[in-house]
Specification:
16% strand; alpha/beta; 38% helix; 317 residues; Rossmann fold; 6-stranded mixed sheet; 4-stranded parallel sheet
Amino acid sequence: MRSAAAILHAVGNTPLVELRRVVPHGHARVLVKVESHNPTGSMKDRMAVAVIDGALASGKLTPSGFVVEYTGGSTGTSLAFVCAARGIALTIITADAFSREKRDHMRALGAEVIELESEGGRTTKELIQRMIARAAEISATPGAFFADQFRNPDASGGYASLAREVWEQTEGRIDAFVQSVGTAQCITGVSDVLRALAPTIRIVAVEPSESAVLSGGPAGAHKIEGVGPGFVPPRWRDGLADEIFRVSTAEAMEMTRRLAREEAIFGGTSSGANVIAALRVAERIGPGGTVVTLICDSGLKYLSTELYTGPGNGPVA
């Protein structure tokens, strides 16, 4: 258990970096929390520790039991990491819509991975619901613990540390926090802490413009992995965000590539979406303000995908 505790202590305390080249003159400064520095390269390591340790403490999960979860990949990889450290079995339901790197990473960490077929490699409401249903079916097995990332309250608590780190690293000088919404657990956990510290902080949610259900639009297919499930997450609540910005897959991919080339920050598509929205907020706030957002995960998780193999990946002119 000493060795397991040591590796799990590597979660968190990630750097906060100011963007220099993609932020136009006259904007507020934009700081990004580089969550790719977590052990699996994702912010989801935070929630995975909270969910597994919470289940063990409550008795919902025993060391001889096993964990079941549906995931687009980053949550599954983070759960596989924690379960490997704790010596607990894990069964994952995912799909071919999500990167090969994520699926291979889960298997490398010892998880059993069941893959469902998607609609042309895109994230859709129907796909997510099929994944959830399959995981729920398996979780009826004796000894199973259903992590259920959309509903598990321990997940949002796992992001409290992220909010406290942001507050300390900015010395309390923060005007807005921007985050893309998948399960809504991260934006919930962070906003609860930040608003308790400074009620005037603006919380800004981001969703795919192709599936802008939080904004009242219809569900649709998109390729921003990890966000925009096509339905309002159960943990979402009125007033959670002060406003919601829509960002398209194309915009998010373009900015993600720019971050790699111009800022040397290598992230996934949701990171690009976050920065697009953060720049809109920073323009409104103007000089002297501070906007914080997340680099949710590492670009290493997406090397085989359209993000880094498709159009737009040639040399910068």
